[in-house]
């Protein structure tokens, strides 16, 4: 009997072509589906909570699948882990109701973007954007980050993949910047994100701190203007999908009129 399973996974995205299955077979989804198909001796497809770009990492990516598996979640986790690359980890597996959907049931997501002031140590460099000799003003970064909190039209901070979005308004409950020694972390949480949106927000925050982009220019872009060459996308390697939320986070349901 088919059972729906919710799986939380993590990965170092450096060497993958993103999350979503690709013709070259080098996406995270491709490796997981190949291993599941090997275990079950038939084709198995999975559905993720959303895409991450090539080079982007995850600590809490979620996917679901329907599988006739009677040995329990622990046995499935062990069987799945054996044949996966070391850069993909399975955090948890549990049975869920049929109405659960990894993408459409999601209420929100949290991303962290990590910046290292100087050259990151070798064991960290795959997961951070090294600023080398350019120092950032964290207070100025936070001032820019606060511009993005709330309901806004983020059209100028996304990239069109060929299919226009029906609605480019999103709600961010948090966009903040913290530092711990040379490490700067930009934390972003909201009810939904468009293609390259978080990396574009971080690019704008860094440029505001460098005085290459003013707060007035950021506010102008948030009025729903088309993307400008002034908005630069931060490198993929610093971004990690931290968590996907499936319980109500208290976000407002609708944007203000």
Which keywords apply here?
10 strands; single chain; 2 domains; alpha+beta; 5 helices
Overview of this protein structure:
The protein is an alpha+beta fold. The protein has two domains: about 5-95, Pseudouridine synthase I, catalytic domain, N-terminal subdomain (Alpha-Beta Plaits, 2-Layer Sandwich), CATH 3.30.70; about 110-245, Alpha-Beta Plaits (2-Layer Sandwich), CATH 3.30.70.660. It contains five helices and ten strands. The chain has helices at about 30-40, 75-80, 140-145, 195-210, 215-220; strands at about 5-10, 45-50, 55-65, 90-95, 110-115, 130, 150-155, 170-180, 185-190, 240-245. The model has no long low-confidence stretch (mean pLDDT about 95).
Give a short summary of the structure.
The chain has 257 residues and is of the alpha+beta class.
CATH topology of the largest domain: Alpha-Beta Plaits
* Major sheet description: 10 strands, mixed
DSSP helical segment count: 5
For CATH, the homologous superfamily of the largest domain is named as Pseudouridine synthase I, catalytic domain, C-terminal subdomain
Q: Say how many strands there are.
A: 10
Q: Which secondary-structure class do the elements indicate?
A: alpha+beta
Taking all Cα atoms into account, the compactness measure Rg is 19 Å
Order of secondary-structure elements: EHEEHEEEHEEEHHE
pLDDT < 50 runs, ≥5 residues: none
Share of β-strand residues = 25-35%
Q: What CATH architecture label of the largest domain applies?
A: 2-Layer Sandwich
CATH class of the largest domain equals Alpha Beta
Oligomer: single chain
The CA-CA distance between the termini, in Å, is 47 Å
What is the global morphology? Answer: globular
Average residue-wise pLDDT: 94
What number of domains? 2
């Amino acid at each position: 009997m088919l059972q729906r399973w919710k799986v939380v996974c993590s990965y170092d995205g450096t060497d993958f072509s993103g999350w979503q299955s690709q013709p070259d077979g080098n996406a995270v989804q491709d490796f997981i589906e190949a291993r599941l198909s090997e275990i079950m001796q038939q084709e198995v497809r999975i559905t993720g909570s959303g895409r991450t770009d090539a080079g982007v990492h995850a600590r809490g990516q979620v996917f679901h699948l329907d599988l006739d598996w009677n040995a329990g979640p622990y046995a499935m986790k062990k069987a799945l882990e054996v044949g996966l690359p070391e850069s993909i980890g399975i955090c948890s597996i549990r049975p869920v109701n049929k109405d659960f959907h990894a993408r459409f049931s999601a209420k929100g997501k949290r991303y962290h973007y990590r910046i290292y002031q100087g050259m990151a140590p070798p064991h960290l460099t795959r997961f951070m954007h090294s600023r080398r000799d350019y120092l950032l003003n964290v207070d100025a970064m936070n001032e820019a980050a606060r511009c993005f909190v709330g309901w806004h039209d983020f059209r100028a901070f996304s990239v069109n993949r060929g299919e226009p979005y029906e609605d480019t308004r999103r709600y961010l409950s948090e966009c903040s910047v913290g530092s711990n020694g040379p490490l700067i972390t930009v934390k972003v949480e909201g009810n939904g994100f468009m293609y390259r949106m978080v990396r574009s927000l971080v690019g704008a925050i860094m440029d505001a701190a460098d005085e290459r982009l003013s707060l007035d220019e950021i506010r102008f872009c948030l009025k729903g203007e088309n993307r400008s060459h002034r908005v630069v996308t931060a490198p993929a390697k610093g971004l990690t999908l931290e968590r996907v939320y499936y319980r109500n986070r208290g976000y407002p349901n609708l944007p203000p009129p």
